[in-house]
Design goal:
231 residues; alpha+beta; 2 domains; two-stranded antiparallel ribbon; 4 helices
Length: 231
């Protein structure tokens, strides 16, 4: 046994002498290069997987668009819903209707009265301006003029303009007082109607405007009253 053991040890020594010296640094460098190559392969594999998934999504989306395109009356899964097709149409933009003759549009969309030269001869009350399209009803009373619009055929005086002279002023609510050219204009409401009054000489001129027709701004009402005289 001892001789066999010595023989084996001799073979081992000779085999070890034939091997090159161990280079630890070279082995470490080779190991690092191998790790870098593995990481690069993983990154490339991940990029390829993402690209493949994106291509699959695009292909499926294009196929769905082709099946459900606007030119086809039928789509995969059944006929199109007519109510859905109607709701998807673009609604048309409607423009506001133009104002009728003698009126302009205010910034809020309401028709604003337009004052023009008065071509009619009234009685004791004379105004150089009158709302366009409004004419005096006949017969004309001495101290009261009623203006009506041809399109408003009604006996209701609340839908008409009433101009009258009285010795005493009326009590207006929510009064707005303006002094101009030596005259004091009072604008407010009387029995729910926009009204204005001004003292001319020894009498008061009262103007009652219609309700729910056109817009009378305060300055337009003051211009109308300022153009009037009481005989």
């Amino acid at each position: 046994m001892d001789e066999v053991k010595k023989l084996l040890e001799g073979f081992a020594d000779r085999a070890a002498d034939g091997l090159p010296d161990v280079d630890v640094e070279a082995d470490v460098a080779r190991g690092r290069r191998a790790l870098r190559r593995i990481k690069r392969r993983r990154r490339i594999t991940g990029v390829l997987c993402v690209a493949a998934a994106s291509a699959a999504v695009l292909a499926i989306g294009n196929q769905v668009k082709w099946w459900g395109g606007p030119g086809n009356t039928e789509v995969a899964g059944g006929a199109g819903d007519p109510e859905t097709a109607t709701a998807s149409t673009t609604p048309s933009t409607s423009s506001p209707a133009p104002a009728k003759g003698g009126e302009t549009m205010s910034m809020f969309g309401a028709a604003v009265v337009e004052l023009v030269a008065n071509q009619q001869a009234w009685s004791a009350i004379d105004c150089s301006l009158a709302p366009k399209g409004w004419t005096a009803e006949t017969p004309i009373a001495g101290s009261r003029v009623v203006l009506s619009h041809p399109e408003m055929r009604t006996a209701d005086t609340t839908a008409k303009i009433v101009v009258q002279a009285a010795p005493q002023a009326r009590s207006l609510r929510s009064v707005r007082v303006t002094d101009k050219a030596g005259k004091t204009f009072h604008v407010g409401t009387l029995d729910g109607r926009l009204s204005g009054q001004v003292k001319l000489a020894d009498r008061w001129l009262l103007v009652e405007l219609p309700t729910g027709t056109v817009d009378w701004p305060d300055d337009v009402l003051r211009r109308f009253m300022d153009s009037c005289t009481v005989k």
